[in-house]
Structures are given as C-alpha cells and as structure tokens.
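BUG: 3D viewer hangs when loading the predicted structure for this chain

Environment: internal workstation, default settings.
Expected: structure renders.
Actual: progress bar stalls at 90%.

Input used:
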Amino acid sequence: MDRLTASDDRLSFVFPMWNEEAMIRRTVAAAREAGCRLAEAGQVGSFEVVVVDDASTDDTGKIADELADDDPRVVVVHHPTNRKLGGAIKSGFAAATGDVVLYTDADLPCELVEADKALRLLRLYEADMVTAYRFDRTAEGAQRAVYSYVYNHLVRWVLGVRVRDVNFAFKLIRRRVLDHVELVSEGSFIDAELVAKAHRLGFRYVQFGVDYIARTRGTSTLSSPAVIVKMVRELADLYPEIRRIRRLPTAVLDGEPT
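Structure tokens produced before the viewer hung:
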C-alpha cells in the first residue's frame, strides 16, 4: 500500500454545535460527501460524523437525531446543559472512534475538500496533527481580526507554539495524540491547549493555508468580550500545567506498540 494512503484508517468528523438548525443539515451532508469521496479514493476505509448538540435551544438536537436515524454513520451526543466550545469538543473527541479525527465548526469555515489535502500532508510529513490557517481574515470583520492577531501572538510568546492561526477550527489529529493529551478547557482556549500540550509531548504538526468562508447562517459568539476574557484566564490558569509537560518516549511518538 502507498505510504501516502491508509485505506484501513477510520476518519471521524467532529462538529460541536449550539443552535445550528440553519446549518446542521448541509454540514452533515457536506461531511458525508467528503467521507464518501475519501473512501472511494482509498484515502480512508470508513468514516463517521459526530455531532455534539451543546444543549441547543432550537431544533438542532431534534434534527441531529433525525439525521442519525437515517444514517448510522451519524453519531449524536447531547449535552443536558451548555458546556461551551471546550466541553463540546471534548465530548466529540470522546465519542469519536476514528484513527484520525477532523474537528471543524458547524458553519464550515472552509470547504471540506481541504480534508483531502490535510490527510495527504499528515502522511507525507509523518505528522501527528495538521492545523489550517486562513489566508485572508478580512471577511470576519476588523474587530475580530485584531482580536485574533493579538491572541495568536500571545499564545506564541507564552506557550512557545508557532501556529499561525491557533483558534481556527480545522484540525486533523491522529488518535494517539488524543490518547495522550488530557484536555481541561471548557471554553475557546481548548484549541491552544490542544496544540500546546501536543507540542510539549513531542507530537509533530504541520500547517497549511485555506480560503476562509465567513458564516452565512446562524450567529458566532466567539468574538464576544466575555469569551475573550475567559480564553486569557484559561491561558493563565493552565500555563503552569502545560509547562510541566515532558516529552514522551520516542517509541510512543512513533506509534510503536507497547
């Protein structure tokens, strides 16, 4: 088998959702289309779509259950209370059964055709994680672009990770990373926590740029002052724990059986 393919790999798409009734059907349809294309091309052996309904107050949960009833590849996790982005991502990772896991937002901030490239980069560079960054952030508005710029530089300076767009929601992750990284954040700091802890453990990541597609339906809450304040607080709270992390043995990082 070509070293750039792994036809027996299972791919899990993970979508945290809160009040996404306007997007959920097209999001799940796009994931199924991408999964089928990758399976037909021999890039993956199978796939699943994990939807985390974070205590939505609209029909997101109901629609998710309907989609799961129609297709066994759709897995739904319901939160009885809202746990924010970090809690939803942790539930999605826990429910995912794939050898590789692709986490992205329900509003599809970039086309899922980018999953093809992400998988190829993961294998070509023998990486453990692929994280995307936006070529152009002007579509998100000036205020959010400034927040993102400042936050990314803060994360680089404090945590020592050279990720260009740490909070951008498109990350392809090998299962062994999730098996060794213990995530704590319940908020939007979880992206930086994931990358920083994986980096400290010795896992390898690569980056690539994508065309950003601004949200056209639903409402984003990630640029609110309360969310930003919580991210900075979690950065300060988790900094000592992250700095104490030590590199894993080479055999573990190389995926050798123990």
